Amino acid sequence: MSPPVAPSIAHEQHRLIHDIYVLLDDGDRRVLQKVNLSPLEFSVLQRLDTAQGRRLTDIGAELLCVKSTITRLVDRLEAHGLVRRTPDPDDRRAQRLLLTPRGLALRDEAMRLHDAAVERRMGLLDPAEQQQLRALLEKLRAGLSEELESDNR
Amino acid sequence: MSPPVAPSIAHEQHRLIHDIYVLLDDGDRRVLQKVNLSPLEFSVLQRLDTAQGRRLTDIGAELLCVKSTITRLVDRLEAHGLVRRTPDPDDRRAQRLLLTPRGLALRDEAMRLHDAAVERRMGLLDPAEQQQLRALLEKLRAGLSEELESDNR
DNA sequence: ATGCAATAGTTGCAATTGCAAGCGATTATA
DNA sequence: TATAATCGCTTGCAATTGCAACTATTGCAT
Questions:
Q1: Tens digits of per-residue pLDDT, A103-120?
Q2: Residue A68, CA: closest nucleotide via C1'?
Q3: Which candidate in B137, B147, B148 is best for mutational testing of the A interface (most A CBs within 10 A)?
């Protein structure tokens, strides 16, 4: 049970976040299965709209996955009629990705289900705690993404 | 940018945790690559010792992945001489999984690297904030795992 | 202007993972 | 104690993902 290396506080914290993520992701997976979406597909749909659209690379950058993953995930979504690729008017290399009406409807349905499940799970903390948690996480996220950017520079 | 469904507070919080996890996981991946381990492999090694060992199924349950994933992940670790399967004396169906000396050394090396990276990243919060965060996350984790258990019942 | 590096996206390939079926061992039930 | 249900683990198969290589386009530096 006890490893020879003493775990640090930060390590414990990281472990906590990891455990929680695993639990949340597992819950997400079950909920989203009802609308036949994987968590990653849902993340992509969440980032789209029906008007201007987004470029594939931008989405990949936000989700920290390689371009080819987005390409093929979008292939699937498009085959299901949920999104539509359209040429970017400003850059002939790029594609803009749009939600179709059907995609919008499914996305909203998924969000309703997902939000209800998340609400229930986050309800384990009272509102004051949720507020606290949110502030801490926002600070952490800001720092982490900044660090990531400077790493990539 | 703005979706037609108003995002709830809980939803925002979930999004934060998700984003942070993605960032942390990306960081983990880079660090662990230096010792040629995937995050999941590292998670498994972290849960092992050199004495009694753990059963494969128990590890899978903790990491919320199916048994076959553990089977094959252990196949790889064993092929690299990091772990060893040994029959469970109490149950002839089961295998107990042990760290080899080499596995122990690598695990400790990985933990040193990983901890240093985590320490640096969690250092974005001051000690008081880390303390706060830890308390909140522990409460959340406890609630979530309890919920998971009752789901599976 | 011209050539060279960087960028957007796609494709081939290998590795990882989940699901379902299967096999031996164990526990529960009658 | 016989039989059925469950459990621990493995294997076949399909799906998802990352990496590297490639094409087409853009932008920068001369």
A1: 999 999 999 999 999 888
A2: C10
A3: B137
Q: Are A48 and A97 in contact (CB under 8 A)?
A: yes
Segment A31-56, tens digit of pLDDT? 999 999 999 999 999 999 999 999 99
The residue ranges of every structural domain in chain A are 12-122
One of 1.20.1250.20, 3.40.630.30, 1.10.10.920, 1.10.10.10 is the CATH number of B13-122, namely: 1.10.10.10
pTM value?
0.87
Helix ranges restricted to H, chain A: 9-33, 39-46, 56-63, 67-79, 101-122, 127-151
Mean pLDDT value across residues B98-103: 97
Whether nucleic acid strand D comes within 7 Å of the CB of A150, the answer is: no
CATH number given to A12-122 = 1.10.10.10
Q: How far, in Å, CA of A107 to CA of B64, rounded?
A: 26
Q: Is the CB of A92 under 7 A from strand D?
A: yes
